[in-house]
Design brief:
Elements (H helix, E strand, L loop, with lengths): L1 E15 L2 E4 L2 E4 L2 E3 L7 H13 L5 H4 L12 H14 L3 E10 L9 H12 L6 E6 L5 H4 L3 E12 L1
Parallel strand pairs: 5-6
Antiparallel strand pairs: 1-4, 1-7, 2-3, 5-7
Helix pairs in contact: 1-3, 3-4
């Protein structure tokens, strides 16, 4: 068996809106995330981690923000497409660890649904998916409530 580890990071600023998409969950909020797609920083970071682990570039290479095809794209669809790319190369995801960095919205009430969404999209048990959140104690752009950051780590394996 061969294994690799990948990391991904994504950041989006807040803009006018009524909800954020995180881990495929529509969370009511007094702002949205500015993005070409649905702005799901959790899934974008996960896609980058998966692509990086398989040495397949990054999410922007496969789904460029300059391409109108990906305007308002559902990030769960992007995740499923990335999973297909990995499988074509002989890789499968073993586990996922995502950390969301934000002051608001609260993540804990939505974490189990995020796990379920990612599990369904990647064919993983929810016990193989970790969703965590932290604040920056008021420091930096996240602490000032200007946006959300996500960090993802993934293990992929090939038999």
């Amino acid at each position: 068996m061969k294994i690799r580890v990948g990391q991904g990071i994504d950041v989006h600023a807040f803009c006018t809106g009524r909800h954020v998409m995180l881990g495929g969950v529509r969370i009511p909020h007094n702002q949205a995330l500015a993005a070409h797609s649905d702005g799901d920083v959790a899934l974008h970071a996960l896609c980058d981690a998966m692509l990086g682990a398989a040495a397949l570039g990054d999410i922007g290479r496969h789904f460029p923000p300059t391409d109108p095809e990906w305007a308002a794209a559902d990030s769960r669809e992007l995740l499923r497409r990335v999973d297909v790319l990995l499988k074509q190369e002989g890789w499968s995801v073993g586990n996922v660890d995502i950390t969301l960095v934000c002051e608001q919205p609260a993540i804990a009430p939505h974490a189990s649904q995020m796990q379920a969404n990612i599990g369904a999209d990647l064919g993983l048990d929810t016990q193989d998916i970790s969703i965590k959140a932290t604040t920056t104690e008021g420091l930096g752009f996240c602490g000032r409530g200007e946006g959300i950051a996500a960090l993802a780590i993934v293990l992929i394996q090939s038999w």
